[in-house]
Design brief:
Number of helices: 16
Largest sheet: none
CATH class of the largest domain: Mainly Alpha
Radius of gyration: 20 Å
Distance between the termini: 37 Å
Low-confidence stretches: 2-20
CATH topology of the largest domain: Growth Hormone, Chain: A
CATH superfamily of the largest domain: MFS general substrate transporter like domains
CATH architecture of the largest domain: Up-down Bundle
Strand content: under 5%
Number of strands: 0
Length: 413
């Protein structure tokens, strides 16, 4: 998902070393929060249907758990294929206009989801409209997520990049934490159609606010080819993918898992995951600088795997809630810990490109997890989905240790 970036440019474009005018710390914080608010709105629109959508596809429309997983994953595939284009759009049109276009795409997504709800008596048409809605949402997410970071950095200066990244990530998962239970309430009280209408209204508001915001200069810069950068960061991206499988599994199947266990409160498991993520970001923002990305990644993967194993073996909803929280706590620093090491593989002028290529693996993992975990659930049951995700997180431990050893050997030679 696009909430993260560990360099001043997530598109490969260098940015100015400082804001045009000196800003007080209080003003910097206000500017950052104002820009991160666009990310918050989009991820609120993403979070609201998250706990409701799998059940709608599987139970209301009558399709399999694989199709339910694919319905979630369409969004991530759309983000994956549009990430490079988002970078080019920022370079040529500017971050503000990129955010505006992303908001319009997300608004169209909400409208299509509303039509899908109205077409429920015709299940296939409803499913087609829903898939189109998810694709538009993924395209919009890519533009707003990348654009908001670059817009914020352009407004407060590159020296405040870390603060911008931190607040952008907090906005993302705070919105998901709020959105999941809100979506359940809206669905139960006003019906599924209200999910689409709410998403549309939120992102129309985002477009209006973005249109009134100050534009920042378009900065051009030479960069390596995307394919070359992708090869350089491939191993680190695979580590990110291993960690992301846990989030994708929880986001897609926690609702059906709770229903299968005859438990209530599935939306609060998503809230626990997101709240723990935000808490970890706030509490441990400086540990990567202190201990290095590889060591932090190992601890994060271990914590995430423990949480996923707890979800797999949970006998009560309280244990499942704890497992989701631990998984979110561990996942919180996976992206920046390996991302810091990935961007150090290239020159400063290409660090944005490295992060853009690195982020592709998050999108790809989220896209693949839905149908793959759906197949596992269909054959082996929903608890096994989280065992599969835990094994992937343990693979992240092994990969991080291997990368750490290689880095140490390279430093000695």
């Amino acid at each position: 998902m696009s909430d993260d970036s560990c360099s001043p440019s997530s598109t490969g474009t260098p940015v100015p070393a400082a804001a045009p005018r000196p800003l007080t710390p209080a003003k910097v914080t206000r500017q950052i929060i104002a820009t991160a608010f666009f990310t918050f709105l989009v991820y609120l629109a993403i979070g609201i249907p998250m706990a409701v959508l799998p059940g709608y596809i599987h139970l209301d429309l009558g399709y399999s758990s694989v199709i339910a997983g694919l319905g979630i994953s369409v969004q991530y595939f759309a983000t994956f294929v549009s990430r490079a284009n988002a970078g080019r759009m920022i370079d040529t049109m500017g971050a503000k206009h990129t955010v505006m276009r992303g908001m319009l795409l997300c608004s169209a997504s909400g409208g299509l989801l509303l039509l899908s709800a109205l077409a429920q008596p015709l299940p296939f048409l409803s499913l087609v409209l829903l898939f189109a809605s998810r694709a538009f949402l993924g395209l919009g997410e890519s533009l707003v997520g990348t654009g908001a970071i670059m817009w914020g950095v352009g407004r407060v200066g590159a020296e405040n990049t870390a603060k911008m990244i931190s607040w952008n990530g907090i906005a993302t998962y705070a919105a998901l934490a709020i959105g999941a239970p809100l979506g359940v309430v809206l669905d139960r009280s006003l019906g599924f159609a209200m999910i689409g209408l709410t998403g549309m209204l939120l992102t129309v508001l985002g477009y209006v606010l973005a249109r009134g915001g100050p534009a920042t200069p378009v900065v051009q810069g030479e960069q390596l080819s995307f394919k070359l950068v992708l090869r350089k960061v491939f191993a680190y991206g695979m580590g990110l993918a291993f960690g992301t499988i846990g989030f994708g599994s929880i986001a897609t199947f926690i609702t059906l898992y709770y229903a299968d266990q005859h438990w209530s409160g599935a939306a609060f498991a998503l809230t626990a995951f997101s709240s723990a993520f935000v808490g970890a970001r706030l509490l441990f923002a400086n540990v990567i600088t202190r201990f290095g990305g590889y060591r932090v990644a190992v601890v994060c993967f271990l914590t995430e795997s423990v949480g996923l194993l707890l979800l797999w073996s949970a006998t009560t909803p309280a244990l499942a809630l704890l497992g989701a929280a631990l998984a979110g706590f561990g996942f919180a620093l996976v992206f920046p810990s390996l991302g810091v090491e990935a961007v150090n593989l290239v020159s400063p002028a290409n660090r944005g490109a490295a992060l853009a290529a690195y982020s592709v693996f998050l999108d790809l993992a989220l896209g693949i997890t839905g149908p793959l975990a759906g197949a596992i659930a269909g054959q082996l049951g929903y608890p096994q989905v989280f065992l599969f995700a835990a094994i992937a997180a343990i693979g992240g431990v092994a990969l991080s240790l291997s990368l750490y050893r290689s880095a140490q050997q390279g430093a000695k030679s």
